[in-house]
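Database export, one record per block. Field names are fixed; values are copied verbatim from the stored entry.
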Amino acid sequence: MATTSAVLNSGFRPETYWPESRTPEQLFANIKGKVRRDIARRILAEEGFAGLNSFIARKELEGEDLFM
């Protein structure tokens, strides 16, 4: 019978403790309105996730974003 110390590797550290990120479509599903989802898709295509993060965090569109 093996002892616990022989079975467990206490030095193991996974790359991350968090699950993989959601897919773009899973992120877009939380955005209300087709137009706003389409804007988010365009931002993702042009600027990547960095541009999308600030867009998704907004509760409402303002100024120039209303006319994209």
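Remark 1: The chain has four helices and no strands.
Remark 2: Residues 34-47 form the longest helix (14 residues).
End of record.
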